[in-house]
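Q: What structure does this chain adopt?
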Amino acid sequence: MTRINNCEVCIIGGGAAGLMAALIAAESGRKVVIIEKNKFCGKKLNITGKGRCNITNNCDITAFMENVTVNPRFLYKALTTFSPTDTISFFENRGVPVKTEQGRRVFPVSDKARDVTDCLEHGCRTAGVRILQGEVKKIVTVDGKVKSVLFRHENEDCLIDCESAILATGGATYPLTGSTGDGYRIAKELGHTITDIKPSLVPLLVKESFCVECMGLSLKNVKVSFYDKNNKELYSETGEMLFTHFGVTGPIILSASAHIKSEFPCRMFIDMKPGLDEETLDRRLVRDFEENKNKNFINSLSALLPQKMIEPIIKLSGIDGLKKVNEITRTERKSFLQLLKGIPLTIKGTRPVSEAIITSGGVSVKEINPSTMESKLVKGLFFAGEIIDVDAYTGGYNLQIAFSTGYVAGQNS
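A:
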């Protein structure tokens, strides 16, 4: 077995949280080693925001906390220590200019996630961080304190002595990027509680065939609303969504998944014309019907709906598509109007956690010091990023959580 010395802080995982922790620890004068499972760091970071990397959300702490769905109070100290404003300054001062877009989402001006990863990795290497490829097997403790980390490197077992270890392995999403849940196992072996692991910010499964018939169609500026079995509204938002072979996805759907959690089955309604009240929309229908009065119903809706949706929605309406528009009754028109204001779908579940953007659940925050990110059970053990039982809505919040917890863990390790 190879023994590696000259390390004070061993960081397990070279993603957003791990790279930030390593950089801050190294710039504080600590001797740092990152153990990364992949051949290069930031594999998941490089695909966030569709490859553009939504670094953070340009908002104050109060607004930020309102967008954290699980354990927001735990994050208060970390967010005040390294806030969204600090993140923006951090990257701009290191040569990555940023811009703020709709929803206060912050991206690099280049629209390249790789620039963010390169910035962090370059900073680490400049500060003397060693990056080793390997798969961690366990963290060795003696008398309740971190002593060393056992990992597999180049087909042999290696032991790296250290004073502190930071678990920044991510969750269980996108396993091809290395987030396979290893960190949960390691933490559990050290006595930590792992709360239920569930997908969050994840596509939704739909019972009806309507989505299959509209597969590939993207809708913009539509309103989606979700209701539980007691007709209580769970979530409502206007934005962009996409039909798939299994159901629905897209920004407003992913956000909805964080709200509805395990409320399945539940009902979803799509308002195709959220900017028009029923009276205004009815006048629009009357006008359109008058202009197309001699056409078949199926050929009269191209100005109102995307072409791919016309046949499925006519089928849903129960109106004969070959019926002449001037033969459509007032009752049928009103019924069709109601459909446009709320296409009904049944949500039966979510896609698997491996397809989620983030994992809900993880190491219990009750066992982590929120001021330092250090374990309350094992001295010298720290946590950062998605492995912790915190998560938030889409919009840069989860990446900011990774940076903030990574910063605090690196600062105190």
